């Protein structure tokens, strides 16, 4: 067989085989930002089958921009155990209890940690709808298509991916909960959008409000702020990491995984 044929065959066969296998999972995490990647690792550590769908061709979400394009972000001491789990280095920088982290290191090691624990990350996959069941309303999966299709403005029907739990980790827009609210009025969920900056309260509240929206659908990271009208916090990432860890614990509990 010619090399060109081998390349095409291996890419298509392996991708197709894997996509079929991944079309039924335990947890679908939508968004490969800090909260989504953190959740993915801790869920995979519990031996759950975890798939992350990310619409861009890269992971890290808002991390890569660092603090307003400066290449550092801030965390406080509560984030250190999570940074340790991902082997992310941090530096004490003269303000007690606060640390700086290199944004490039944070985004790559969060992704590597999720992958090493067994999560699968599919890039270029945009979720555009939920899959639901009624009586009682529950979310049982998502509908996704390749982001390139959206970029090209083509009218193409999406594919399905089913799972026992779906995490909205799409950031400031809370894409999945917004879809739930707009297209499934029966859920009685409204998305007020996030409030203006108040870093200390935002860092606390975003973790506190992390969790289940309706059966099958969970919210983590900045989506939590959008859904619950919480403040934003700027380039400090403790809340994102702890929110990701918390949603993983909540899902594991709901799915009956021994803690
Ligand atoms: O925005 P993002 O980093 O979300 P996060 O985990 O973290 C927020 C922080 O980065 C920062 C902040 C806290 O300091 O304010 O902004 O809450 O990552 C969200 C990811 O979701 C992807 C998007 O490309 C990004 O990588 N995403 C958004 N919509 C979709 C999506 C979609 N419909 N389908 C797939 N991926």
TrEMBL record:
PANTHER family: THIAMINE THIAZOLE SYNTHASE. Involved in the biosynthesis of the thiazole moiety of thiamine. Catalyzes the conversion of NAD and glycine to adenosine diphosphate 5-(2-hydroxyethyl)-4-methylthiazole-2-carboxylate (ADT), an adenylated thiazole intermediate, using free sulfide as a source of sulfur. It comes from Thermogladius calderae (strain DSM 22663 / VKM B-2946 / 1633). Transmembrane segments: none annotated. Pfam families: Thi4. HAMAP family: Thi4 (MF_00304). This is Thiamine thiazole synthase. The keyword Ribosomal protein does not apply.
